[in-house]
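so im writing up the methods section and need the Serine hydrolase record in one place, dumping it here so i stop losing it
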Amino acid sequence: MKALCAAIAPILMISQPLSAQPASEQIDTKVEAGEFNRTTSILLTRGDQVLHESYYDEGGAGALRNTRSVTKTVTGMLVGIAVARGALPGADAKVLDYFPFTPDNPDPRKSAMTVEDLLTMSGPLECNDSNPWSRGNEERMYTIEDWPRFFLDLPIRGFPAWQPKPADSPYGRAFSYCTAGVSTLGAVIESATGEQLEDYANTHLFAPLGIDTTEWQFSPLGLAQGGGGLGLSSRSLEKLGRLYLDGGKVGDQQIVPADWVAASIAPKASVPDQEGVEYGYLWWQRSYSHDGKSYRGASMSGNGGNKVIIIPELDLVAVITTTNFGQGNAHQVSDRLFEEHLLPLAVAAG
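--- predicted struct ---
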């Protein structure tokens, strides 16, 4: 890919009416006016062409953006790499095989729990970050030292009559968003490879992409948090999205297996209460529309509306970073920014 353009200087006051501004300038004007709340950067590429790159805070292009659960997708990439390198037998590997203890609440369904169950947010344990009363809610995990043990000790999830069981759900999986499960995937990778998660990521994912600056969050016992909080620059995030558009390759080097890439962005579970939204291997999937045409996309997504969106049909990567943490409509704000402004800009670029 051609080198990305230099960080855009602070935007000057523009006297001409908004309708007369070029589309890219209109985006900057709207963001700086606060229409999209605290959006901190936008980077849009189509193929090797940079269509828009702007930074709306003091950090600029070099700032490490805490994009929260975007990290989960990175962990999914590392699982695929571990499979390709023979450290894991596949997505059907049993999770408990990688831990030297017998967890509380033993159950055959827990023993049968697979890596794929955690990749698709559809495991058998009672873990739901959307439910503050869930025993597995991530806020409860942060109060103890051993995060994987916290997850593995959880009881089996129950399904009252008003909730569809896995067998009655699309794709045979009942989705339940669970950060603790993905944190545990990081520990599975460490156990399988014999390397710390951050070192494995640096060697087998980041270095081949030319990403040399990262910032991980860690558990009290020193486990890198595969479930959130990884700091990466906007340009590094774009490289991760581009990797999946290119089938897991950088040049002639296959970083992530092509079949893992395809499986990751294919639907594996339907997300309840979000019409048209599906989930793959830690990738969100939905369609975006412009000028009467629908474009299927996949995204890495984190709290605050932080997103890396890829549209394979357009060879498009869009990075949106924000500090809109904890805002109930943050994802809708970023999706509107993408659908109303970035997608049209990319389509027009041909």
